[in-house]
Specification:
The complex is a heterodimer of chains A (about 525) and B (about 325).
Chain A (H helix, E strand, L loop, with lengths): L3 H7 L13 H5 L4 H31 L9 H37 L7 H23 L13 H5 L3 H29 L12 H33 L12 H35 L6 H14 L15 H29 L8 H24 L1 H7 L3 H31 L5 H28 L13 H31 L41
Chain B lengths: L18 H34 L16 H30 L7 E8 L2 E6 L4 E3 L6 E4 L4 E7 L4 E5 L4 E5 L5 E5 L5 E7 L12 E6 L1 H9 L8 H11 L25 E3 L5 E3 L2 H9 L22 H13 L2
Parallel strand pairs in B: 1-5, 4-10
Antiparallel strand pairs in B: 1-2, 2-3, 5-8, 6-7, 6-9, 9-10, 11-12
The chains are: A mainly alpha (about 525), B alpha+beta (about 325).
InterPro entries (chain A): Cyt_c_oxase-like_su1_dom (IPR023616), Cyt_c_oxase-like_su1_sf (IPR036927), Cyt_C_Oxase_1 (IPR000883), Cyt_c_Oxase_su1_BS (IPR023615)
GO biological process, one term (chain A): respiratory electron transport chain
Keywords (chain A): Electron transport, Heme, Iron, Membrane, Metal-binding, Respiratory chain, Transmembrane, Transmembrane helix, Transport
Chain lengths: ~525, ~325
């Protein structure tokens, strides 16, 4: 479907960013945002496999298929902690911004690179350093606190490994802040001629809003994690009640970052979905402004709702009610996005290539995740569901069903641009069917378990929860298989894929106006923009 | 009420052992219906468009529609109204869950530790949780629990009562419930607390209130009630040299009628004198200085145990 026009303009020079320099050293010292994006891809994919291994271990244990438990309680608690910490801090938070964002953002803006290429490479190495420090806690003094590190358990009752994990997360936070900074400056300063702020693609609006959260919220986490370290090594007594501290203060600090972080995870995913829906409906996005500004609105409100994680923590009733009220406002911009995406399909011409299937899967799963979020935002209802499997199901529907579906869709969508080759559409579809089915089989029963009262982070449970747990475990294997097929499809595409044209999907944004793969500095001639990003007329 | 039983998802909820549980389930049933309707509108609409506007030939053209202000206003405004309704409904239930009634039949101090709960009754009866020793409460009457923890944060969750409250070290929190009838109900710990987190389970046994009264007064385990112990401590620590118990004004505020009264502080703020306020004022009196009194009281943080503080509170409560 590529237009002949684009092909002739760029000719068939075989010179592109992948062969611009050769050898491992040229990759390790590269300042090219596209290569850095791919390096994040490899790193995040590896970490995802490790996090997935722990997930399957947890589920296998909880299925209780054998007479003897598969894990002992301490090992189980460590698996649970590693699964959460790896997936949150090392996969879902950096996944879309650092990998897809790095690859796509400058090309979509018509820029040669990000504003600070050296800082971009440094961010990558800071991330690697943080991941290594955190991973070392898997080897020395393993941690069993859960990824939330609640005090005083983390400061007075568990191993010193928590210092390593916290230090790792602290370090990765710098990477997050620097990437956000780089994106904001790039968006403001390096747009192609004619690209006004209301002509930037929605992916950029999403990454821009995310960057604001990264810059404002991550320092809070950094300080909080430092305080944990100080508390544990020096006994300063900020969180320790024996020394006059307040353990609930930690939760305020922690969620003041970690709630906005939920939107660091989901906003970029929404950006990807906006691109996919319009490209595969071959139709101008419906309500461009509404989608763009709703990203900013979500980012803004995300700072005001942290207390909804603490309705039963002992904070005042009034505080609980106010946080509930503000949380409800998040639902509105979210609903706006969903309605706009669906309206984009209206009177379009829709095709169902693998990336689109992932986008539709996102819509399905994210809708369930969003609606069950309303249950939890309602104070009277949340008291029953708080810290049960209902919460586990809810945030997996949002984070896995939402972010990872979008990430997969984004990978298959931009793959031809990244490697100049196509993935097998059949492989992508099989991967999608397995992940989508497996996901629902795994997590839907967990809503029911939560309603029945099964608490989260449980090594063992009452007999009446057994059947649903076993169904959930079987689903988890389907998900694992689905990602395996996805991985094979990607590797097969890199090695043996058919050659991709410059614009295989017939999309309109700037990255499709250059060759596949793009040259070292993205465009041979600087593009000039004369219309909005999705002008399918 | 009957319509909510038509929603199959409500059958997964635990038994409704309190009136509030019924109200929570009604909201739950409403949320299920509202979610199903929203889901059908969103995903059903999407599916319909996908089928209707599926691309069938290469030269097909999409319509050019950029926005529609009226539709966009509607789908922003209608969800907002629905969300506000859900917020309000949840708030009404939440306030009931959080506000104990005036007439409390049993008031029990519950202390959490890794991985057990200890209960102390007002007359000095004391238990350590075990499978054979459920927490005994009267059926058909309100029970109030005053929760704290010795080590890490735990959480007291009774699915059948639809209620839950964290037990936080260094702080007193409260929880109340009124089981409709006699029976045994499971209690989970829901805040992750270490190795045996999932094993930290007990039962609440609600017994008819006459039976409860007989049980409560029989075979006292402790020698003195917490209030009696608190009275002794009050004398030992010479509290009476600054705090009268008959309402007269000396150096500090009187203890008479103190519990539950409204306090006004030197910095202009106000609070109700509940367990947590008393605890804080005993340990670090300078945290809240009552208007018109000097900040003269010594700090007892570190020199009084949690149990001693609880005993003092029970004594102060008894000075009506």
């Amino acid at each position: 479907m590529s237009s002949a026009h684009t092909k002739t303009e760029h000719g068939h020079t075989d010179h592109n960013y992948l062969n611009h320099g050769s050898g491992i050293w040229s990759w390790m010292t590269t300042l090219d945002h596209k290569r850095i994006g791919l390096m994040y891809f490899a790193t995040v994919a590896t970490l995802f496999l490790i996090g997935g291994f722990f997930a399957l271990g947890i589920r296998l244990h909880l299925a209780k298929f054998g007479a003897e438990p598969l894990l002992d309680p301490d090992t189980y608690n460590k698996f649970m902690t590693f699964h959460g910490a790896i997936m949150v801090f090392m996969v879902i938070i950096p996944g879309i911004p650092a990998f897809l964002g790095n690859f796509v953002l400058p090309i979509q803006l018509g820029a040669k690179d990000v504003a600070f290429p050296r800082l971009n490479l440094a961010s990558y190495y800071v991330f690697i350093a943080g991941a290594l420090i955190a991973a070392s806690s898997m080897v020395f003094n393993q941690v069993d606190t859960g990824w939330t590190f609640y005090t005083p358990y983390s400061t007075s009752k568990t191993s010193n490994g928590v210092i390593l994990l916290v230090l790792g997360a602290f370090t990765m936070g710098f990477s997050s802040i620097l990437t956000g900074l780089n994106f904001i400056v790039t968006t403001h300063k390096l747009r192609a001629p004619g690209m006004t702020m209301d002509r930037i693609p929605l992916m950029i609006w999403a990454l821009y809003s995310t960057s604001i959260i990264q810059i404002l919220a991550t320092p809070i986490l950094a300080i909080t994690l430092l305080l944990i370290g100080a508390e544990k090594t020096l006994g300063v007594g900020i969180f320790d009640p024996d020394l006059g501290g307040d353990p609930v203060l930690f939760q305020h600090f922690f969620w003041f970052y970690s709630h906005p972080a939920v939107y660091i995870m989901i906003l970029p995913a929404m950006g990807v979905i906006s691109e996919l829906i319009t490209a595969f409906s071959k139709k101008t996005i419906f309500g461009y402004r509404a989608i763009a500004y709703s990203s900013v609105a979500i980012a803004a409100v995300s700072f005001l709702v942290w207390g909804h994680h603490m309705f039963v923590s002992g904070q005042s009733t009034l505080a609980g009610i106010l946080f509930s009220l503000i949380t409800m406002f998040v639902g509105v911009p979210t609903a706006i996005k969903l309605f706009n995406w669906i309206s984009t399909m209206y009177r379009g011409t829709v095709t169902f290539d693998a990336p689109m299937l992932f986008a539709l899967g996102f819509m399905f799963l994210f809708t369930i995740g969003g609606l069950t979020g309303v249950f939890l935002a309602s104070t009277g209802m949340d008291v029953h569901f708080h810290d049960t499997y209902f919460v586990v199901a809810h945030f997996h529907y949002v984070m896995v069903g939402g972010t990872l579906m979008a990430l997969m869709g984004g990978i298959f969508y931009w793959f031809p641009k990244m490697f100049g080759k196509m993935t097998s559409d059949l492989g992508g579809r099989i991967s999608w069917v397995l992940i989508f089915t497996g996901f629902n089989v795994t997590f839907f029963p967990q809503f029911v378990l939560g309603a029945m009262g099964m608490p989260r982070r449980y090594f063992d449970y009452l007999p009446e929860y057994t059947n649903l747990n076993q169904i959930s475990t079987i689903g988890s294997w389907l998900i694992g298989l689905g990602f395996l097929v996805g991985l094979i499809t990607i590797i097969h595409g890199i090695l043996k894929g058919e050659k991709a044209s410059d614009n295989p999907w017939g999309a309109k944004t700037l990255e499709w106006q250059t060759s596949s793969p793009p040259p070292h500095e993205n465009f041979t001639t600087t593009p000039t923009v004369t219309a909005g990003p999705y002008d399918f007329r | 009420m009957s319509w909510s039983s038509l929603i199959p998802a409500t059958s997964f909820m635990p038994i409704q052992a309190t009136e509030i549980a019924k109200e929570v389930d009604l909201l739950y049933a409403f949320l299920i219906i509202a979610s199903l309707v929203s889901f059908v509108i969103l995903i059903g609409g999407m599916t319909w468009f996908l089928i209707k506007f599926k691309r069938t030939s290469l030269d097909q053209k999409s319509a050019y529609i950029t926005h529609n202000n009226f539709a966009e206003f509607l789908w922003s405004f209608i969800p907002l109204i629905i969300m506000m309704g859900i917020f309000y409904w949840g708030m009404v239930i939440f306030e009931k869950l959080r506000t104990p009634p005036e007439d409390i039949a049993a008031e029990i101090h519950v202390t959490a530790e890794q991985w057990a709960w200890t209960y102390r009754y007002a007359n000095g009866k004391e238990f350590y949780s075990s499978a054979n020793d459920p927490l005994i409460v009267p059926a058909g009457k309100a029970t109030k629990l005053i929760l704290t923890s010795k080590d890490v944060i735990h959480s007291f969750y009774v699915p059948a009562f639809r209620t839950k409250q964290d037990a936080v070290p260094g702080k007193l929190t409260q929880l109340w419930f009124e089981p409709k009838q006699a029976g045994e109900y499971i209690v989970f710990c829901t805040e992750y607390c270490g190795t045996k987190h999932s094993g930290m389970m007990i039962k609440i046994k609600a017994i008819p209130s006459e039976e409860y009264a007989a049980w409560y007064h029989a075979e006292k385990k402790g020698a003195d009630s917490p209030a009696d112990l608190g009275k002794t401590l009050f004398a030992q620590k010479a509290c009476a040299s600054c705090h009268s118990i008959d309402g007269s004004r000396i150096v500090g505020p009187t203890m008479k009628g103190l519990f539950g009264s409204g306090r006004k502080f030197a910095d202009g703020s106000q609070a109700k004198a509940d367990e947590n306020y008393l605890r804080e004022s005993i340990l670090v009196s300078s945290a809240k200085i009552v208007e018109g009194y000097p900040p003269a009281m010594p700090v007892f943080q570190g020199s009084l145990s949690d149990e001693e503080v609880a005993n003092l509170i029970e004594y102060i409560k008894s000075i009506k």
